[in-house]
Amino acid sequence: MTSREQLQALIRAEIDRQRPVAVARRTLELLVESATRRLDAPPGYQIVDRDGRPRTRAIAGARPGR
Description:
By secondary structure, the chain is mainly α. It has a domain at 3-47. The protein is 38% helix and 9% strand. It has two helices and two strands; from the N terminus they run ααββ. The chain has helices spanning 3-17, 25-34, and strands spanning 36-38, 45-47. The protein has a two-stranded antiparallel sheet. The longest helix is centred in the first third of the chain and has 15 residues, at 3-17. The termini are far apart. Residues 43-66 are annotated as: Disordered.
């Protein structure tokens, strides 16, 4: 399985976990794939915003930029 196929399988599994309605499944897969870049470093992907900048999330108690 190629890295692209592995990433697609990961995306499908996470979408399935959220139990979307059947007609939304492919649209959700395309949206997530379009916002995902494959990387060589773990975890193997990066989520980007509409401008191509990496998306981040705040973790309680962590300082920004860490």
